[in-house]
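Risk register update: the risk of archive-format incompatibility is retired. Evidence:
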Amino acid sequence: MIKGSRINLRHVRRNDLEQLVSLLNDLDARGEYLPNTMFSPVDLQKKFEADGMAGDDLTRFLIVDGSDRILGTIFYFKSVPYYSAREIGYTIFAVDQRGAGIATEAVTLLSRHLFDLLQINRLEIRMDSRNLASEKVAIKCGFKKEGVSRGANFIRGKHVDMNIYALLRNEFDV
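Archived output:
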């Protein structure tokens, strides 16, 4: 478990799967800036059985409060095969906790963990260019805007631009 001041990041447990599937498939809980892809309960179960959702392709943590209530999820993966950077993605499911600094703390905790764990020099966050809240999270966590990928994602019937933010190891405030 990665412990923070108000939240913790922990691996997915078997008894979390039913609730996680429900949250991941609740389009309102996921927010308007993520694709409306539905997650198959069978596929998520297989992924959990294969590697506990902590594999080489993608590692997912749950963002939980002190009473272990699931507030959201944060994950990392290697998005570009020819360099060692990792991309971070996150969602706050608990609508009452959005804007309360939960995502900022989660990104900071995971960034520290990844720079301590992996021999990488770069972390990235990409978000729908309309997602101002996520952009604020990236900026608060020290990520710098590097550009825009035009029409790079398809979200709810529209091609949208994606902002690209990155944080280098020597820029991270340890």
